[in-house]
Amino acid sequence: MIKRFFAGGNTVKGFYSYFDNILPIENAKRIFVIKGGPGTGKSTTMKTIALEMEKEGHIVELCHCSSDNNSLDGVFIKDIAVLIVDGTAPHVVDLKLPGIVDEIVNLGDFWNEEKLKENKDVISVCKDKISDLFYNAYSYLGAVNEINKSIDNINSKYFGDKFAKDIADNIFKSLKFEQKNKQGKERKLFLSAITSDGIINYAETISHMSNRNIVLLSNTNINTGRIIEIIAKQLMEKGIDIETFYSPFAPDKQIEHLYVEDLELFITSKNRFLEYNGKSDLIINIDTDFISEEDKRLLEFNFETTETLIKKAVENINKAREKHNEIETYYIENMDFNKLNDITLSIINKIKNMH
User: Fold this and answer.
1) Phi/psi of residue 4, each to 5°?
2) Does residue 89 surpass a pLDDT of 80?
């Protein structure tokens, strides 16, 4: 099963990006940055390249679009350190070593500019509408951020640092590995995202790569991140490289999942807002029966309100996708897809000649 993830997401802090973490420039052999408008074939090009590289036997990772999870924002060919990535807004990718490592692929070279200009007004109206819809979505998600403060405050009474550290230490002590004489590195990404189809979670794709899958289960405490954070720091202090996957509800601080390739270890969260259908070798239920009835009622109110706000955010993201699809129709009918096929084959051949 191919690893799937998100590098950017619709979060309580707006659009949040970890695109630089897909493949740091110092580790890259080549980065193809694809530029072009909606409907110009960016995702199709990446899917074609990913399929060809998989046929060639390469290790391929797929980076999905958080607004439309059926589209791709990037393809990482891990074993040869090559990345093909969408470089258009909102996930703007800065060129670090242009012409040396980074290469721009401009699909705008293949559209009929004069014909596109004929639809300038309607495209402009659609773009303005999309901006309004995302403004609404991020406003609703921003309200979720405020409600999370109440949820965290309640949970802090029952799930303190000692509670988290005891669970983390027990897990860490069970791990078998050799300490390395270096500081481990962290790769930050997302496995879940708030998309036009609701909350999508790709944790299952990593569970199938792991021999030990630990599930932190909770119906009342949506922040299992403190436990994972402690384990992550302990592993890096021992020189182990890790991949951490953050929550769209706290993209800068709350870890939902931890993957350690060298240990074939995956630690994941499952809660009211995060489904998990992957492999489970150990399930740790971190709920407690000691929550007061008053706090239970307040938590339930907070969760129900959060669900309503997420639903409204998703509705707006879905409407934005529909407007985006409308814009795509104008670009599609004015694209030279024969030239697009040629550039796709050119990229494939360049990659094949790198090894």
Assistant:
1) -125, 145
2) no
Residues 6+ apart with CB under 8 A from 97: 25
pTM: 0.94
CA distance 289 to 259: 30
Cβ-proximal residues to 18 (8 Å cutoff; 6+ apart), any chain: 7, 8, 188, 189, 190, 246
- 267 vs 276: CA distance, rounded Å: 11
Q: Report the 10 Å Cβ neighbour count for 311.
A: 12
DSSP codes, 141-163: HHHHHHHHHHHHHHHHHHS-HHH
User: What mean pLDDT, rounded, does the chain reach?
Assistant: 93
Q: Which residues contact 239 (CB under 8 A, 6 or more apart)?
A: 179, 180, 181, 182, 183, 184
57 phi-psi bin (left φ>0, alpha ψ -120 to 50, beta other)? left
CA distance 225 to 155: 13
What is the CA 227 to chain-centroid distance, rounded?
Answer: 21
Q: Which residue has the tokens 């819809």?
A: 133
The residue-averaged pLDDT of 195-224 equals 92
Residue 167: HSE in the Cβ half-sphere, 13 Å Cα cutoff: 22
For residue 160, report the phi and psi dihedrals to the nearest 5 degrees. -80, 180
Query: Which segments of 24-123 are extended strands (E)?
Result: 30-35, 60-64, 72-77, 82-86, 102-106
So what's the pLDDT on residue 112?
87
4, two tokens? 């799937």
> How far is 218 from 57, CA to CA, in rounded Å?
39
Per-residue CA distances from 51 to 75, 85, 274, 352 (Å): 10, 15, 29, 13
**Number of other CB atoms surrounding residue 260 within 10 Å:** 21
Pair of tokens at residue 320? 């934005």
Task: Provide the token pair at 291.
Answer: 């929550």
End-to-end CA separation in angstroms for the chain: 24
